[in-house]
Amino acid sequence: MQVANTFMHSREADILQDYLESRAAKMDNWVIIFSDLIILEVALRGEVALFVIMIRRKSFKLIQLTPWWIDKAYLESRTPLPIVSNPGVSFPKWNYCDLDGQIDAAAKVAQSALIFYKMIQNNKLPQEKMGDELLDMGQYKNLFGTTRIPSLNKDKIKYGYQCETPSEHFIVMRNGHIFRIPAFDSNGNVLSLDQLKNEIKSCVIPSSEIVNEHPLGVVTAEHRDKWADLYSKLQDSNLESLKSVEDSLFVLCIDKKMDDIVGVTPADLQSLECLHGGGCNNNSHNRWFDKTLQFIIGTDGYCGVNYEHTPVEGPAVASLMEFICDQLYVSSSHSIFHYWTDKMDHSYIQLSMQLAYYRIHHKQPSTYETATLRKYLNGRTDTIRLPSVESLIFTSAMIDADDDKKKPDDNDLMHMLKYAVQKHKHYTVQAMNGNGMDRHLLGIELAASDLNMPLPKIFSTDAYKKMMHFNLSTSQVPTRNLITMCYGPSSPDCYASCYNPQDEQIHFSICTFKSCPTTSSYRFARELEHSLNDMHRVVQHSESIPRFRS
């Protein structure tokens, strides 16, 4: 397996400019002025030099930031894993409608996943690239056999590839019951489809018809410290059962039918089943949310994955799901939105979401977009930020275009769109090259802690706090098959939007909290459709159509 670049560039001086630009489009003038004075003070006093100290003291590399990032973003978090941390990912709908079909699908998914696991073990996965640059493939080895272990204050990760003896089993859950199923024969070969189906039919189904009144898996959805406390008490009485789940390659959840919800489409119900199981009256008790991979086998052809986010990012999971779809010969032409996409890229899509939010709330959203750092060894993600000054100008002008008296010329709108796209693309490249602002700021913050130095004043400004509160959390997970990912909002008033741009269509998955009175997934979807149509009109009516794709 080839190794990607090791070093991430440091540009401790340039992050100040990025910081200023990022919140110039977001903050009130008085906050900007006050924040600028603080930044100037920080620069003059040399507090940004904390990052330089870390470079000199520890030959700072991305490989050293990644464990810090994992601790900060995941393991130290005490919030329950479902919704906010663990994403749910839906397969295309498969054609079965009875228990035999469900068992058949479960066996096929398990067998395909085990074949993929063998490919990882034997270094048979094709090397992934971004353009001509190699991407680090290390996350794939984290997929199988890995489990998050609850612990007070900070969880731990038990990686499957680090175990002395590789796992040879997986877990099947049905109605809250847990079963250990062999994965390989005596020669180390993946069990045949008939063998896997027979294991499920003979071992699982007869012993799981009645719902388990005390399902252990449900506690994995608890607050992490509460689960950690119970986990320590279970070590004496249930050690072998816990170890069997933790050491397993993955969990296969054979679900019961989800309760219908008025006004909720089957696709939305499938997303809820994959994201959190639908509550304990449905299938939330039939989960082990600490496990990196949970395959969800629903009724009536609705299947998917729930994955624990700490060891892997979405693209690795999506690649596994693509492989499973290919093994099962699945194809689907279903779409949510059909749009003109031959000249559309992620910057264009991001601006459509900016416009949709602005139409609802009449303000610019502090926006998170995932940037991959897989060009670097053990790289995870950085943040691509919006709004920019250019996106603010464009969205404001588009709102003015709703008023015929103030309506700008389409050519002027096209130029504004072009500059906003170019600005976003520029920062995207910066972030993916290791020159984003957020991980550098994280490095400064953690360096201060590591050196027992006072936290720089940047981190206590109103501007910084507002900038770190996201109104829109977005991610792009492109696939050939119709595989849709969803995840919960990062804050109560946030929209979570994951999108899959394909050749002739885009698929959006939009999540909001019902408890928030100011956000609505359905309204955002309507305004997003409105925005895409309006932007399409501007591009069509302008004198020249720019080639957005690089």
UniProtKB/TrEMBL annotation:
Q: Which residues form the Choline/carnitine acyltransferase domain?
A: 65-329, 347-529
- Output the superkingdom of the source species: Eukaryota
Which residues are in coiled coils? none
Query: Which keywords accompany this UniProt record?
Result: Acyltransferase, Transferase
Q: Which GO terms describe its cellular component?
A: peroxisome
Where, by residue number, is the active site?
Answer: 309
Q: Name one GO biological process term.
A: carnitine metabolic process, CoA-linked
Q: Name one Pfam family in it.
A: Carn_acyltransf
Q: Does the keyword Transferase apply?
A: yes
- Whether Amino-acid biosynthesis counts among this entry's keywords is no
Any one Gene Ontology MF annotation carried by this entry is: carnitine O-acetyltransferase activity
Concerning InterPro entries, the annotation shows: Carn_acyl_trans, Cho/carn_acyl_trans, Cho/carn_acyl_trans_2
Q: Which family does it belong to?
A: Belongs to the carnitine/choline acetyltransferase family.
In Swiss-Prot or TrEMBL terms, this protein is called Choline/carnitine acyltransferase domain-containing protein
